[in-house]
From TrEMBL:
Family listed: Belongs to the small GTPase superfamily. Rab family.
Top-level taxon: Eukaryota
Protein name: Ras-related protein RABA6b-like isoform X1
């Protein structure tokens, strides 16, 4: 039976963090609306987007927060992180500095969320730009292992691993909640 039903079994908040222009907004628009933009419009960011997914017979609605460009000034406030059960921690595989800054984002995230339960997926985005790669996949993997994170390389442009990145976070949060 087909029926419109807004009810869900779980609703939770997750956040996107990482340096400016790593692809946060495009990963979210790819996941929530299957859209990608070549131009970057950092100041016209939405606050958040929703997507419902079915996990183990339950409907989980994820409210995923995106920045409106505050990360450029390292001015993300505690309210952005408050109550977040999960995070995608994103760098750009073609810009080494964005990978080096991951540790700063990680300590900020752990400071403002519940560090014992927050589910964190490390994401190396722009995997389509193979010729410009500055961070090897093994480096991302090894950082993730030492920090106890999940890890994936993605391409918002080619729609590679985007579903997997969000769904691995959502699935893990579901396990933490149940
Ligand atoms: P944000 O500042 O982290 O939200 O980054 P944006 O989503 O605005 O993306 C910054 C720029 O990178 C834009 O020009 C995007 O088109 C581009 N971009 C984002 N994701 C990818 C990707 O997977 N591959 C490529 N080649 N470009 C991307
Ligand atoms: Mg953005």
């Amino acid at each position: 039976e087909e029926s419109y039903d807004e009810e869900c079994d779980y609703l939770f908040k997750a956040v996107l963090i990482g340096d400016s222009a790593v692809g946060k907004s495009n990963l979210l628009s790819r996941f929530s609306r299957d859209e990608f933009r070549l131009d970057s419009k950092p100041t016209i960011g939405v606050d958040f987007a929703y997507r419902s997914v079915r996990v183990a017979d339950k409907t989980i609605k994820a409210q995923i927060w995106d920045t409106a460009g505050q990360e450029r000034f390292r001015a993300i406030t505690s309210s952005y992180y408050r109550g977040a059960l999960g995070a995608l921690l994103i760098y750009d595989i073609t810009r080494r500095t964005t990978f080096e800054n991951i540790k700063k984002w990680l300590s900020e995230l752990r400071g403002f969320s519940n560090p014992d339960t927050v589910v964190i997926v490390l994401v190396g985005n722009k995997s389509d730009l193979r010729q410009s790669r500055e961070v090897e996949e093994e480096e991302g993997q090894s950082l993730a292992e030492s920090e106890g994170l999940y890890f994936l390389e993605t391409s918002a442009l080619e729609n590679q691993n985007v579903e997997e990145a969000f769904l691995s976070m959502i699935g893990r949060i579901h396990e933490v909640l149940t």
